[in-house]
Give the backbone structure.
Amino acid sequence: MTASILVVDDEKAIQEILSFTLTAEGYEVATAGSGEEALSRVEQEDFDVILTDIVMPGVDGLEVLERSRLLNPRASVIVMTAYAALETAISALRGGACDFLEKPFEIEDLKQRVRRLLQYRETIWKDRLVPRALQERPAGGTLVGESDAIRAVREQITLAARAPSNVLVTGESGVGKELVAHAIHDASARHDYAFVAINCGAIPEALLESQLFGHVRGAFTTAVQANPGLFVAATRGSLFLDEIGELPLPLQVKLLRVIEDTHVLPVGGTRPVQVDTRIIASTNRDLAREVEAGRFREDLFYRLNVVHLEVPPLRERRGDIPLLVDHLVERLNTKLGTRCLGVEREALWTLIGRPWKGNVRELEHVLERAIVLGGGELVSLRDLSADPAASHGAPPQNLRGAVRRFERQHLLDVLATQSDKRQAARLLGISLASLYRKLHGRADDNPGRTGQTPPDSTPS
């Protein structure tokens, strides 16, 4: 896509020269004759680069720089002036300018600077130095299920979206905490602005500070250009801090300061930048215990835990598994280019009975492996039994556990060749009720007892 550039100068001749030069380079160029006109255009359009004079009547270039960072955080700003002074250059660079040009300048020099700046933007915004920073929606789609537990989560999302308060989403790994964060953002008044996500545990501390709060040019050896940071990128939108429990204590102090003051101070900078960002944090840790252990600041915990949403693990909403399976199979077909129609009834019963310590993420991985290795129209028990997840970890040390594991695998092997459950029970020498109990992982120490046999249909 062609880069768009806004040229701001109160001299018409300068506008025309720069517009002609940059258009000839293949860029889309717009012009503004004043700071007021420039800010009006920035409010209505997205620009990749803003090239602005500093000394202008009314709104000057430094104000254009400061306000454009709020209106369009992704725009990179180059300032230029005929009244060059070291103090002016430092002020502009500390305010977030990516480069500084002294008039008169060489046209070739200008073209090279713009080209280098756009290449740098490509690295920062598109090559994902910060994984999954700016995105439309995470892989996984929407919250799927009709259980009471998931309905309660949806109701809480609706209530949380109405207020600007910070939200803490908790739950085990793989339950869909990021989906909840997205849903809150999408239902809020901020939905037209950016949803920015970062995993606090996936980035080294030194780099994490720069990515969150930004840095000025020259702040460290590799800071060849200024970076506004993710708080600025999420202004008027939402910032999702995934795995907030992994945030180092020094950065917890700085995050608390940003929440209290609504300003960020870029690394190496001296001028704070105002931000308007809603924070949605998530963790699989018990932050209250982390506070007691001294690993998480109590004041930050209360600042984040204004609204608390707990996402239930999959084992507590097994009735949603058939709906999740249908949803995931459809999505995996798109991803893999396959034509799987679904899961056989006995295989579905097996999926419902698993412990799912990895929750929905584990379910998706199991289905993906079964679809890839099975290759049939329906996922069968044989496809699932070939999956390492069926063994649920290391072999048990006690004899009873080992016997039960062997028993379960033998059940799956028989059912893989005999789809009729009643016939399979007769071959195994057990009752149909016992077969169902064993498939669901329940002990059957008293083979003579009776139990309710599940209906001979797909569970819902």
Q: What stands out?
A: The domain at 4-126 is CATH 3.40.50.2300 (Rossmann fold).
